[in-house]
Amino acid sequence: MNGAEGGAGRPLRIVLADDELLVRTALRAILGAQADMEVVGEAATGAEAVSVVRARRPDVVLMDVRMPEVDGIRATELLLEAMEDEAPRIVVVTTFENDSHVWDALRAGAAGFLLKRSAAEELVAAVRLVARGDSLLFPAAVRSLAARRAPTHDGRGPGARLTGREAEVLRLMARGLSNAEIAARMAVGAATVKSHVAAVLAKLGARDRTQAVVAAYESGFVTPGPD
User: Fold this and answer.
1) What's the confidence (pLDDT) of residue 3?
2) Which residues are recorded as modified (4-aspartylphosphate) (predicted)?
3) Which SS3 state, helix, strand or coil, does residue 114 take?
4) How many whole angstroms separate alpha carbon 77 and alpha carbon 93?
5) CA 87 to mean position of chain CA atoms
């Protein structure tokens, strides 16, 4: 991708999946008004979302968590399993930040989540963010979701596989810091942080930062207490 644009400088291709027509209409109006974005498909169920996404090949999918027939969690799993490296970036959309289904969607491979009440500028910024390959995480909300689940403490947590520097990077990732912020905190170069992040993802078998952070919380390596 080139910045916030799709391949070869084209607009970002977006699919909207939500069972409420009014929600899809509002999202289409907001995103369609952006010069660098194009809504290429819509779906009212998770099953339709899978079909539309595989046919339209978008860059980003806004996926409602709760939909009839197949919910957004299962639809996310199906798309990532079927499309693998060609899968779009998926952002789950929910009404409540404490929706337990959001955690399951993040575990399934969603790049992050948005609230349906988000302002238009937040929505647009989020789509551009995930299109660049970044994750959309809100540290306080993620901590709240993680606090509802007991860690596994199975001895196979991230700490056993990471170097000291990599472990520090993962903790800072869980606090929502960007690569630039991590570099400043650790007094190292951005390239060094990027290398550490890549190593963390590889060792944890994580698709992206979101899955790495979820794994850190679920293993108990990071706890959902205050910063």
Assistant:
1) 41
2) 64
3) strand
4) 15
5) 13
CATH, range 151-219: 1.10.10.10
178 residue type, one letter: S
Domain residue extents for the chain: 7-136, 151-219
CA distance 94 to 138: 14
Could you give the CA distance from residue 153 to residue 165 in angstroms, rounded to a whole number?
Answer: 21
Kindly write down the DSSP assignment for every residue of 120-142, as one continuous string. Answer: HHHHHHHHHHHHTT--B--HHHH
- What 3-state class would DSSP assign to 145? helix
pLDDT score, position 17:
96
Name the CATH superfamily for 7-136.
Answer: Response regulator (3.40.50.2300)
| Structure-token pair, residue 12 | 């970002």
Q: Is the dihedral of CA 210, 215, 221, 224 positive or negative?
A: positive
pLDDT, position 2? 37
The segments of the chain whose pLDDT lies below 70 read 1-8, 97-98, 138-140, 147-159, 225-227
pLDDT at 139: 63
Give the pLDDT of residue 168: 94
